[in-house]
Amino acid sequence: MLEGLFGNIIIEKIFFFLATYKEGYPLGMAKTFGVPVNRIQQQLKRLEDSGIVVSRLVGKVRLYTLNPRYPFLKELDALIAKAYQFIPLTEKDKFYRRRTRPRRAGKPQ
Amino acid sequence: MRIDWKHIDIKDFAAIVIEALRKNGMDALLVGGACISIYTNNKYVSSDLDIVSHATMKEISKALAEIGFKKKSSRHFVKTGCPFFIEFVSPPAALGNEPIKSRNEMTTKYGKIVLLTPTDSVKDRLAAYYHWNDSQSLEQALMVAEAQIIDLDEVQRWSRREGFKEKFDNFVNGLHGEKT
Q: Model pTM?
């Protein structure tokens, strides 16, 4: 959908992921979309170099978020939100409706 | 002029780097912690120069090679024996949602530095405090506000526009000596 604008489909997926879940780590995103983790890492690095996302280490995991100081964040958010409306329901269910509420440790799956 | 890279002051270092870029026709604006070091007379010590430039990394690499700096990663440059490194922040130069409109200039024996104004330096640090709750950034904003003349009304206007009225109040309380 925004692939032509962003240059590749991974960037589009990263943006939808971060807009939905607010943060994410490369392996989690790779598993969600079924793509190699290095492809996600490569694009996250590109976005971080451009100041569009920021990251921090939490334990051994590098967590990424959209950069709240990116000057075009409001406009980018609006574009992502608009594009999200056009995603088929099946795709939304598959990728963007993961459980985000807490789950106590030890609880059976 | 012979340069003692090992003991160089960050202000002189900034001037050398910015002059090297300017000589090659590139724009460069000093932002971030180095501005705090300069405005507080090294009360806060920064270990790097954050520079915003619209030049390409290829052009920048060529200009910095003339003063012995090599590219260490995609946006970082280092020189053996120099305690500081240089980071190129992706443009545009902005403070939250707003572009940076004014710049300060300082002259040193090594050339001219173009940097954020004291007021914009305070906003730059406050942005980190506002968005990431970084207390060190709040302390640095307070240091600049105490050492330099800043436009507090402008900082208040900007803070409100960014949506951080309450955190701005914490900053003002800090200026009045209250614990933040």
A: 0.88
Contact residues, chain B to chain A, C-beta under 8 Å: 74-75, 89-90, 92, 94, 96-99, 127-128, 131-132
Which residue shows structure tokens 């490569």? A42
A69 touching B, CB under 8 A?
A: yes
What dihedral angle (degrees, nearest 10) is formed by the CA atoms of A11, A15, A21, A26? 20
ipTM value, please give it.
0.78
Rg (CA), chain B: 17
The b-or-e profile of A56-77 (16+ CB within 10 A means b, else e) is eeeeeeebbbbbebbbeeeebe
Nearest to B95 by CA among A51, A44, A49, A80: A51
pLDDT tens per residue across span B30-43: 999 999 999 999 99
Contact residues for A88 (Cβ-Cβ < 8 A; gap 6+): none
